Amino acid sequence: VAIDGPAGSGKSTTSRLLAHKLGISYLDTGAMYRAVALHFVQNELLTSDENLSSVIDSISIDIKNNSVYLNDVDVSSKIRTQGVSNLVSEVSCLPLVRSKLVEIQRSISRNQSIVIDGRDIGTVVFPNADFKFFVTASIEVRAIRRYEEMKLSDDNIDINQIMKDIRERDRIDSSRSHSPLIKANDAILIDTTDLDIDQQVNRILEIINKQN
Ligand code: CDP
């Protein structure tokens, strides 16, 4: 099951719950791109680095029990910081990063049923997925959701700044030349602006059950 969509559309929460209800695995590909971005932040690397190829070769990314590991260290919390969010879309434009992560995503998904979410799953990673959804919502609602989520760990957040950051990430993700964020022709559009998480999951589940 391929689930794509922009930041704050609720696709990760939806995908996790959906996988649970279907009794199959879940893979959050955004977490993998975030882990690579964290490596750039931690080592003060630039995406224009001359030795990009050896930098990317030296990184190992693993997903085990819904945790993401960067060079064997669990970085599941560290990848959610603002610093990583600000750099992740730039890092995700690099073809070397994409080909490395897509290969890992395909190998994890081999021989098992899985819900996998990201930006390019239905278009590039699994163009032959059995089910494809494109989950979206208005920019205002997406910013409010991200605000509510971040407020739990940070008192100093500003909703206008969040909206600006999301807009910028959407712009980079949608306009990059390599695997841009775009709805696959055969993906079903789910607009979650007026839906809560349960309604969102149920809408997708109904469609899957109807076609199965
Ligand atoms: O959770 P949120 O919507 O903030 O984003 P995410 O799913 O964690 O993904 C973070 C970033 O990784 C995105 O903004 C994209 O730049 C990149 N990404 C990608 O390029 N391709 C994917 N399949 C997944 C994420």
Characteristics:
212 residues, 5-stranded parallel β-sheet, 3-stranded antiparallel β-sheet, binds cytidine-5'-diphosphate, 15% strand, globular, alpha/beta
Report on the architecture of this protein.
- With 212 residues, the protein is an alpha/beta fold.
- The chain has 9 helices and 8 strands.
- The chain has helices spanning 11-22, 29-42, 52-57, 82-92, 95-109, 121-125, 139-151, 159-175, 197-211, and strands at 2-4, 25-28, 61-64, 67-70, 73-74, 114-118, 132-136, 188-191.
- A 5-stranded parallel β-sheet has the order 2-6-1-7-8. Strands 3-4-5 form a 3-stranded antiparallel β-sheet, covered by helices on one side.
- β3 and β4 form a beta hairpin.
- α7 crosses α8.
- The radius of gyration is 17 Å and the shape is globular.
- The two termini are 12 Å apart.
- Bound molecules: cytidine-5'-diphosphate.
- The site of cytidine-5'-diphosphate (CDP) has 15 residues, from α2, α4 and α8.
